[in-house]
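Ticket #4471: structure output looks truncated?

Reporter: J.K.
Steps to reproduce: submitted the chain below (208 residues) through the standard prediction queue, then opened the result file.
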Amino acid sequence: MIKALIFDVGGVLFLAKSRKEKNLLSSFNEACLLLENFGIDVTSSKEKLTGIYKKSSGGDITREETLALMSTELGVTQTQLEEYFRRVYSDNSIENKELYGHILKFKKDGLKIGILSTQFHLSKDVLVPAKYYENFDALVISCDDKLKKPEEKSFILILRRLGVKPEETIFIDDKQENLDIAEKLGMKSVLFKNNKQFFSKLKKFDIE
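Returned output as attached by the reporter:
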């Protein structure tokens, strides 16, 4: 019996606004390129920025350290950098409100709902809003919990926080490599493509 649904964020709960930015939510490189819209030349800094991003998304450095290191590298203030990344993500992505509405219904119907997502501190500001912490039963966010998908420990942690067994859970993600780990651990999985396809898949588990 399915007792819990666990959702990815980028490509599932949040979607790119257009095909042009389709890789934004899964590629830090795409986010860097969009910084050029604010007159920032990232060409010579991309490698260093990627290194800082990896440390930030892995929880090896704090939000404050992320801001300090990136702003120094780009020659902008921390306040400017914070605003630039906020706009990169808020201007080019949109919450999947239809899905979110259904998720709240699933919770009302008795299912536990969770989030397992890889984020760095400045993407989390936009893509993991406060209401998610209020309405989801448990979250594992890489920059906070120091565990990234597809590490098995990240899946084990969200299961523990939800208080469910792998076989009682469906994991929803837009990347097959993450679903493979979930299935290896005994979870059911759905490769998310769009809402219509996802809701159709859920019906096979008697969830509507």
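Triage note (M.O.): checked the attachment and the full token line is present. The chain has two domains: 4-17+94-203, 19-93.
Status: closed, working as intended.
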